[in-house]
Amino acid sequence: MKALILVDIQNDFLPGGALAVPDGDKVIPIANKLQPLFPIVVATQDWHPANHGSFAASHAGKNVFEQIELNGLPQTLWPVHCVQETMGAELAQGLQRERIIKIFPKGTDVGIDSYSGLYDNGHRKTTGLGEWLKENGVTDVFVCGLATDYCVKFTALDAVKFSFKTHFIEDASRGVNLQPSDVKNAIAEMNRVGIAIVQSADILNTK
Ligand code: VGL
Ligand code: ZN
């Protein structure tokens, strides 16, 4: 059984948002086209408390994109984004909702970030997504969304750890590229651990 995982397709990651991913909005029509081809569609939602430890604003004297240590883990500091119950945290306007069976919030604990949709960054707690997919008979996952070099990559890597056959849909994803080759390196890293790098057309043409 195949599942499509839509990662963090939320207003704050779109152009004009608090943590805009360049061309982030381009993934929306592709995600919409893909949804009907999967028996199971789920979404992750970055869902931070207002004082989350990943926000530069939560640390006096620290700037956005600086690295700190947060409860023993390296942490990049971000602008305030995806705060619970705000517009920025909502799934993107144009994203079809009807087929999304379940939404998995992540990054809800102040003290730890969660790039992956399956585990927090310390692999201390799960979000329930991996277990839920297993319980629903899923064997293959297709991961896409925002951002390729953070939440999409770590979701795909953790899906492998959960022993799903894992696919990354490149054109249905966009990255932040804090460094210009971050997306390229993320894709290489996914490829190295056996994740299939696919295009939406490969899926649309074979089903
Ligand atoms: C993300 C940085 C901080 C993402 C979330 O969705 O890729 N990146 N929070
Ligand atoms: Zn976040």
| Radius of gyration, in angstroms, nearest whole number | 16 Å
**Count of separate DSSP helical elements:** 5
From the structure provided, what is the oligomeric state, counting identical versus distinct chains?
single chain
Q: Looking across the biggest beta sheet, what order are the strands in?
A: 5-2-1-6-7-8
Strand content: 15-25%
Taken from the alpha-carbon principal axes, the silhouette is globular
**H/E topology pattern:** EHEEEEHEHEHEH
CATH superfamily: Isochorismatase-like
SS class: alpha/beta
Total count of domains: 1
Number of strands: 8
Q: Give the second-level CATH assignment, the architecture.
A: 3-Layer(aba) Sandwich
Structure ligands: pyrazine-2-carboxylic acid, zinc ion
Query: Termini distance?
Result: 14 Å
The largest β sheet comes out as: 6 strands, parallel
Question: Helical proportion?
Answer: 10-25%
Catalogue the unreliable spans: none
CATH fold-level topology: Rossmann fold
Overall pLDDT score: 98
CATH class: Alpha Beta
